[in-house]
Write a structure and sequence with these properties.
Blueprint (H helix, E strand, L loop, with lengths): L1 E2 L16 E4 L2 E2 L5 E5 L2 E6 L6 E9 L4 E10 L25 H20 L5 E2 L13 E9 L4 E5 L19 H4 L2 H9 L9 E6 L4 E6 L6 H13 L3 E5 L7 E2 L2 H4 L5 E4 L3 E4 L10 H15 L6 E5 L7 H5 L4 E6 L2 H13 L5 E5 L18 E4 L10 H7 L3 E6 L2 H13 L3 E9 L9 E8 L3
Helix pairs in contact: 1-10
């Protein structure tokens, strides 16, 4: 159903000013509602399936149009009131208007749809959805900073949904509780600095017992600036870092932050992983624990297996696997991460692991870890997936492959290779709500070699 202006060919790229009324049929992969106007698909931000909404066009393209819902005429029973004051303006959380239980169902459907359409995979066990807290879950974040004289205020927060500007916000309820409460104090403190206009972002890194803020500074702070920052660090019990250049220039403001053990998180009640504020760690530590536990349960290691962990990072999966396997090799492209993974093994007195630094998008046939036999391989690539590694996995021929993915489309693409070109069968797959209120889908799939 649709009621709106017809557009001729000559107006194809002109955004109509008149609002339209549409019936939403489905949700797209990014969480926008899907409707049709004159048989042309239109993606409507802020709308849910089975809703009738009034919307304003925001973009007109050849293949589809885009719009923003401005009024809900008939609401879905799954619609809820967003809990954030800047929802709709902020680009951080697109699905707050959808009930949290239905959010994870939507993500599960995204995974099933991708596996079916791209890989023809429909016969497998659907793992139970993994969920956690839907507020104050985010322990890693990058906050934008902008001194805006017209507002007589330094803006600290995330960027607006449709613009490059930073949202004028005072709280962020998805951030870890203490960081959530620091938005206004940070704004006030930065406003006192002589370099307020030369401080574009803050990296947030929260450990189990510490809160780190890494300030990107484009100009050297004055002595007075440093005193202001130090006072803020003490007042709020923080660890403050300054980053004048790339990540390697990150320097702690105090002795506490200089320690290699300043930041850490616990894993499975038996491991402690240390990290620097610029290292990649999962943003949601509670879900990370559930994810790692599920990985161990699915692999069902008996204690004598040899396991390969690709894209291993700091050793998040590697060290957990080492507690159950005979030996584990971790491979990662960032040397800083593999160095720290080795340190984390030492910190935890784990001796049955080794780490290699390698660019896993490049030829690996002569890599030392390629000339070994593995019982199981765990792979946790970036959003782009690991299509380059699929032939190597096929050649290594482990009994089990566990693929952890942050993008269902590239997961499906890669599993199509493993199940069509190599003798692997998809046994089970499911999703984890690592990023509540966003369309981001974290998933896990277990494959077993048919002749194993």
């Amino acid at each position: 159903m649709s009621r709106g202006p017809r557009r001729g060919r000559g107006r194809r790229n002109r955004v109509p000013s008149e609002p339209i009324t549409v019936m939403i049929r489905d949700l797209a992969h990014d969480g926008r509602g899907v409707a049709k106007v004159d048989e042309k698909v239109i993606f409507v931000d802020g709308a849910l399936p089975n809703e009738e909404v009034v919307a304003n066009y925001t973009k007109v393209k050849k293949e589809y149009d885009e719009a923003q819902a401005t009024e809900v005429l008939v609401a879905s029973p799954d619609r809820v009131e967003p809990f954030c004051d800047v929802y709709g303006t902020c680009g951080g959380c697109r699905l707050q208007h959808l009930d949290a239980d239905r959010q994870i169902d939507f993500k599960s459907e995204q995974l099933k749809t991708n596996l079916a359409r791209q890989a023809g995979l429909t016969e497998y066990e659907h793992l139970p959805n993994l969920r956690g807290e839907s507020q104050h879950y985010r322990f890693k974040a990058r906050l934008g900073v902008k001194h805006v004289p017209a507002k007589e205020r330094v803006l600290v927060g995330f960027r607006e949904r449709l613009t490059p500007y930073i949202v004028d916000m005072h709280r962020c309820p998805i951030l870890e509780e203490k960081i959530d409460s620091l938005i206004d104090p940070l704004s006030e403190m930065i406003g006192k600095l002589s370099i307020a206009s030369k401080l574009p972002q803050i990296e947030v890194a929260v450990g189990d017992n510490s809160h780190a803020l890494s300030f990107r500074v484009l100009e050297e702070p004055t002595a007075e600036d440093l005193e202001i920052l130090k006072a803020f660090e003490i007042e709020h019990d923080l660890i403050v870092y300054l980053q004048p250049g790339n990540e390697s220039t990150t320097t702690a403001l105090s002795e506490r932050g200089a320690s290699d053990q300043a930041l850490h998180y616990g894993l499975l009640d038996q491991l402690t992983l240390y990290f620097k504020p610029y290292h990649f760690t999962q943003v949601n530590p509670a879900m990370n624990n559930k994810m790692v536990k599920q990985a161990l349960d699915l692999l069902d290691l008996q204690g004598d297996e040899k396991v390969l962990d690709l894209f291993c990072g700091l050793g998040n999966f590697t060290l957990a696997l080492a507690t159950k396997a005979g030996s584990v090799i971790g491979v990662e492209g960032d040397k800083s991460l593999t160095d720290w993974a080795g340190r984390n093994a030492e910190f935890n007195n784990i001796k049955n692991v080794e780490f290699h630094c390698a660019d896993l998008t490049q030829d690996q046939k002569d890599a030392p870890w390629m000339n070994q036999k593995y019982d199981a391989i765990l792979i946790d690539p970036p959003r782009s997936g690991a299509i380059e590694m699929m032939p190597y996995l096929g050649a290594l021929a482990p009994k089990k492959i566990l693929y952890v993915s942050c993008h269902p489309a590239t997961l499906a693409r890669d599993l199509a290779v493993l199940t069509k070109e190599y003798p692997y069968e998809l046994i089970s797959a499911g999703v984890m709500d690592m990023f509540p209120h966003t369309a981001h889908v974290e998933s896990m799939a277990l494959l077993v070699r048919k002749d194993a």
